[in-house]
């Protein structure tokens, strides 16, 4: 029997394992993926949103707690637990030295991401390097690691953890941290969550899974069925508009289409359906997957012209290119006359002031529905480009309810030795929406808390045993 069992292999799980081991506990980590795919969705990340009151090594200016909170409040529409959200925010201001101690390195943001240089610290080598650094540190500290070990059942005595099972194998521990991700790779659960729309479509059938194929929600479902308190809307998720040519799983950051705010987005009827210039892209990119999911056929098309080239991080696949709008419509197989009319009406509505993609500028449309609030410039300079978009699910928001100690709750009562971190509890903070880097902030904060509290639970158990003796 080990002191602390950690179920999961991504950022939150690794943070929990490292913190518990640093506190003196023996630790076993069970990762469902094979070694080469270890790390869950964390391998696809690239930065951490950080509160800071003054410039730091790779962070400019200041990003105080209240601004961070207001940014989160805006994207979630108030569907968040302020107490837990502020806990994440404050933890984000102190975690980086600890991360660096475990081998994580940071770099200044790349040119395509300078607009988040104040708010986000970027990992040198991206999320894969972060995951590898944590695994190296875990091995050097004597943490046991088992790959290809998906947990399918938890043994409980009331609200106390007893053991976990992976098939016929059984793992006992004095405390446990659940950090096995959401259910984004479980197509049937996604279908159930999204249901059938008024057009008779099952939207989830057209979703691509931007993250890991190993997050099927088996453990999450088991815990909810076992009576753990759940939180969050199962249809809400980190859902990004990604290149429709992306692979079914593990497309990651390179499949994201980042030119949305520089042009217009059309549905398959060649009609606009939302304000492309509503706010800065890091605060709005994760709404576009859901918006596209609500369109016919769950597909959209990002349209730009030559003026946009060089102003956004290019995706892995080149856009469809044409010398005229009519030619582009034909290549994208969109209704040509409607396509040209939509762009022509948009161009006529543009009121171009001082274009500045790093600020909420005064380039906007007038007498157009939906409006474009910022960065509105006519699409009139050849060549023209189009990117077909599909919803890309990164992680789901349905999770287990927690408190400040990351304890799993049963009927409102916190368990003494069962904790949860990462995507399995992110819905406490993210009821809907997203802002860049906050997922890693949640995973790091609650992973560290869960690991420390699991180790603390051991010492409290020992104290009780000594008192009884």
Detailed description of the structure:
Residues 3-429 form the FAD-dependent oxidoreductase 2 FAD-binding domain. The chain contains 12 helices and 21 strands. With 469 residues, it is α+β, with helices and mostly antiparallel strands. The chain folds into 2 domains: 2-182 and 217-236 and 397-468, FAD/NAD(P)-binding domain (3-Layer(bba) Sandwich), CATH 3.50.50; 238-392, Flavocytochrome C3, Chain A, domain 1, CATH 3.90.700. The strands form 5 sheets. Strands 1, 2, 6, 7, 8, 9, 20 and 21 form an 8-stranded mixed sheet that branches. Strands 10, 12, 13, 14, 15 and 18 form a 6-stranded mixed sheet that branches. A hairpin with a 2-residue loop joins strand 7 (153-157) and strand 8 (160-166). Helix 2 (65-76) packs across helix 3, helix 3 (82-92) packs across helix 12 (438-468) and helix 10 (325-332) crosses helix 11. Residues 464-469 have low confidence and may be disordered.
Q: Structural class of the secondary elements?
A: alpha+beta
Q: Could you tell me the radius of gyration in angstroms?
A: 23 Å
Largest sheet: 8 strands, mixed
Count of alpha and pi helical runs: 12
State the low-pLDDT regions, or none.
464-469
Mean pLDDT: 95
Instruction: Quickly name the level 1 CATH class of the largest domain.
Output: Alpha Beta
Strand count: 21
Q: What is the CATH superfamily classification of the largest domain?
A: FAD/NAD(P)-binding domain
What is the overall shape? globular
Q: Strand portion, in percent? A: 15-25%
